[in-house]
Design goal:
Layout: H1 6-35, H2 48-67, E1 72-74, H3 76-85, E2 94-100, H4 101-105, H5 109-117, E3 122-126, E4 131-135, E5 144-153, E6 158-161, H6 164-167, E7 182-183, H7 184-198, H8 202-216
Parallel strand pairs: 2-5
Antiparallel strand pairs: 1-2, 3-4, 4-5, 5-6, 6-7
Length: about 220
């Protein structure tokens, strides 16, 4: 008959907890590698009319941001579309610009929002994701553009996405890639170049977005 003492029970519980946390740590570290093994699922292309509406909305938003002097760069799926096809990807239902919170805070929010309403556009802010969503027609069915807001974190010397969902994540790019952080020094250098040289064009936003993507991936 096996006799368990209090010491043995405590040690057994300690080893079980230690094994659990080691296993969880391995899952977190290797989760990114496992994601590469997932097979890409084919998606359906949107209609030509939908894509034309998205392109028109995209340029309307670009013109408004340009008039306000807000630095905006292509990112995510919109950037990949410009790199691969020099246009929107055929299955995309939205377009994205990345903007900087410091620039938005320096402007009067009411005036900024009115500029969209005066152009018959609807805009609202999603606090959990830290982005503005802009529609031309019905928010439930039509194409839309997202302004994804990044904020400088001086303590970490990084630019990170805002929104309360990401504020809960630890400040480590490898462990939490969904934080979408980019090194501040490299980002500051090309934003200054963008403002001085390329301001006001979609091509400039595309070039800036490509460099932003390079920064966010550690320069690879």
């Amino acid at each position: 008959m096996i006799r368990f003492s209090l010491y043995k029970l405590v040690m057994l519980l300690f080893f079980i907890i230690a094994f659990y946390y080691i296993a969880r740590w391995q899952i977190v570290l290797h989760n990114g590698n496992e994601s590469h093994l997932q097979r890409f699922l084919h998606t359906c292309n949107v209609s030509e009319a939908y894509r034309n509406e998205l392109e028109q909305l995209f340029h309307r938003v670009h013109d408004i941001l340009d008039r306000h002097g807000v630095t905006h760069i292509l990112c995510y799926g919109t950037l990949w579309g410009q790199i691969r096809m020099a246009k929107m990807l055929p299955w995309r239902k939205k377009a994205e610009f990345c903007v900087f919170n410091e620039e938005l805070m320096a402007r009067e929010e009411a005036s900024f929002l009115r500029s969209f309403y005066s152009n018959n556009l609807k805009i609202y802010y999603i606090h959990s994701e830290g982005l503005y969503r802009i529609f031309a027609e019905n928010p439930d069915v039509g194409p839309y553009v997202e302004l994804i807001v990044f904020q400088r974190d001086d303590a970490q010397s990084m630019y990170k996405r805002v929104g309360w969902k990401r504020r809960m994540l630890p400040p480590h790019c490898d462990w939490t890639p969904s934080s979408n952080a980019a090194p501040a020094l490299r980002l500051d250098s090309f934003v200054g170049l963008l403002s001085d040289t390329f301001a006001g064009s979609i091509a400039a936003s595309s070039q800036a977005g490509a460099l932003f993507l390079q920064c966010a991936n550690g320069g690879n």
